[in-house]
């Protein structure tokens, strides 16, 4: 019986050439699966036709934009997910959703093998294969670039030999991954970490140094989920897309960082994530108003671990499920409005309001109407500092 390979298909050179390559090398039928995560660019139907023209026996295009926004991006907002306190997980968030649809396609089409285009140096090989192992451990996984010493030169030669309908003349100096949550750019001259990014590298964001009027925006949250902009109720996808447009027009969300990859190497990455950075900034501020102090302190460590798990490809893991439950509990009262000014590459919070606010004006004010009993502070301070005073006396006594 002929094996059927389900290929994660992007429509680019590598995955297009992978179709005849896998068919020849494995004697298999290839089913191409392209997932629309709001990445824009080429028409998805054109990508589907290309897969068939390259020899796929079947090709699917799956519109997962709304699913990605609601089921993957919004949980990241509630967890304030920033890997190394900076990276908003735009590639890492998309992989488990792609895996989910690859596994479903294998079930529909009788696939026994799943193929992806990742190399052996990156994080995505882990995200794909650990995810597939969690959802469908019976499926085999093949990565041509890693398993068969696949190179770009070989891909170009095979495309020309087979007469595939793809342009091999243009070679981008960058490796780019993009979706609704943001855009990642690496390789090329960026591999020298002293080189500064050039302006034409960016697509999602305008130059923050250019003069323009600021943009004021009010975000409304319900239980940690953004539900409206400037009073207009929107779907999760619409919220993120609108913030990408408005925050991106102000240059918000540019990141240039050297990050620690899961495989043990450091990698220089340039990111654009205007909507993600604006949303997480606003959400953190609303949490500061509505989440009790000890819960908020503990949640910071949970947020960090959540981001690490997703970055490390452990979306489908018991610990991730447990942390999701904790995060959901903390978000019960994260409801209200946050006003922000978008300008000069920054999203700055200028106001916050919530019926669930823990901020008490009468306790906080220094003016008339202050209800805080300052006389109680004397005893509190003495008791709070008692362990330190005892330790200091001990140290003085023992020299």
Automatic annotation (TrEMBL):
PROSITE patterns: ARGININOSUCCIN_SYN_1, ARGININOSUCCIN_SYN_2. It comes from the Bacteria. ATP binds at residues 8-16, 117. Residues 174-390 form the Arginosuccinate synthase C-terminal domain. InterPro entries: Arginosuc_syn_C, Arginosuc_syn_N, Arginosuc_synth, Arginosuc_synth_CS, Arginosuc_synth_type_1_subfam, AS_cat/multimer_dom_body, Rossmann-like_a/b/a_fold. Belongs to the argininosuccinate synthase family. Type 1 subfamily. It comes from Phytohabitans rumicis. The lineage of its organism: Bacteria, Bacillati, Actinomycetota, Actinomycetes, Micromonosporales. Residues 4-165 form the Arginosuccinate synthase-like N-terminal domain. Homotetramer. Pfam families: Arginosuc_syn_C (PF20979), Arginosuc_synth (PF00764). GO terms for molecular function: argininosuccinate synthase activity; ATP binding. This is Argininosuccinate synthase.
């Amino acid at each position: 019986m002929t094996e059927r390979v389900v290929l994660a298909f992007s429509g680019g050179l590598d995955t297009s050439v992978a179709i005849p390559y896998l068919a020849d090398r494995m004697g298999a039928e290839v089913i191409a699966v392209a997932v629309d995560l709001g990445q824009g660019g080429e028409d998805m139907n054109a990508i589907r036709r290309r897969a068939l023209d390259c020899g796929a026996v079947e090709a699917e295009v799956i519109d997962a934009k709304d699913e990605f926004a609601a089921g993957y991006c919004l949980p990241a907002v509630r967890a304030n997910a920033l890997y190394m306190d900076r990276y908003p997980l735009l590639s890492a968030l998309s992989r488990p959703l792609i895996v989910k649809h690859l596994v479903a396609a294998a079930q529909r089409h009788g696939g026994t093998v799943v193929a992806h285009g990742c190399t052996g140096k990156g994080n995505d090989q882990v995200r794909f294969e650990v995810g597939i192992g969690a959802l469908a451990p019976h499926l085999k996984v093949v990565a041509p670039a890693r398993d068969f010493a696949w190179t770009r030169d070989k891909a170009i030669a095979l495309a020309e030999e087979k007469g595939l309908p793809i342009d091999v003349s243009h070679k981008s100096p960058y490796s780019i991954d993009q979706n609704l949550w943001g855009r990642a750019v690496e390789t090329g001259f960026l591999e020298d970490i002293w080189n500064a990014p050039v302006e034409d590298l960016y697509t999602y964001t305008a130059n923050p140094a250019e003069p323009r009027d600021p943009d004021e925006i009010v975000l409304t949250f319900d239980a940690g989920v953004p539900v409206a902009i400037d009073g207009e109720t929107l779907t999760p996808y619409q919220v993120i897309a609108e913030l990408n447009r408005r925050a991106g027009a102000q240059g918000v969300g540019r990141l240039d960082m050297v990050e620690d990859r899961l495989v043990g190497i450091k990698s220089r990455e340039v990111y654009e994530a205007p909507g993600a950075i604006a949303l997480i900034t606003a959400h953190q501020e609303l949490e500061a108003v509505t989440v009790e102090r000890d819960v908020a302190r503990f949640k910071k460590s949970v947020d960090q671990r959540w981001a690490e798990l997703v970055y490390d490809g452990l979306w489908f893991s018991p610990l991730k499920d447990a942390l999701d439950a904790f995060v959901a509990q903390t978000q019960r009262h994260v409801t209200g409005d946050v006003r922000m000014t978008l300008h000069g590459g920054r999203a700055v919070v200028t106001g916050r309001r919530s019926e669930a606010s823990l901020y008490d004006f009468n306790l906080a004010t220094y003016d008339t109407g202050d209800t805080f009993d300052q006389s109680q502070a004397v005893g509190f301070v003495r008791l709070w500092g008692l362990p330190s005073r005892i330790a200091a006396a001990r140290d003085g006594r023992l020299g």
